[in-house]
Amino acid sequence: ALQSELLALSSGIAFAAMSHASAAERGERLFCDDALLGGLSTLAQLLLLWTAGATTTITAVAAHLVPTLKLALFGLAARSVGVVMALLATARTRGCACSVCERCGQESFLQDALFLLLCG
Fold it and tell me: In the chain, where does DSSP find H-type helix?
């Protein structure tokens, strides 16, 4: 069920973001400072987390933990396969065609794959 507090906070944040963007498109500045709007947004997010967390129990979290971890591990495996396939498909386009660049690309394959996996 949708809690009314969550709906009120979400719609308030959305309205503030849209009005700020609309004023920026017209070249105007809203009456509030960006730091104030950011602080209010952070406060609203904390309130959202608090109200959502108030109804959460450990047993409810534990019941969904295993399926969530399975999904996360599947996503990590799929991302790993995609990174390796992308690196292999673009191996000839990186650097020049000389044997030195080709050898450097082969030697840095693991580091490149880890970088793309973790930071991409």
Answer: 4-25, 34-54, 58-89, 99-107, 109-119
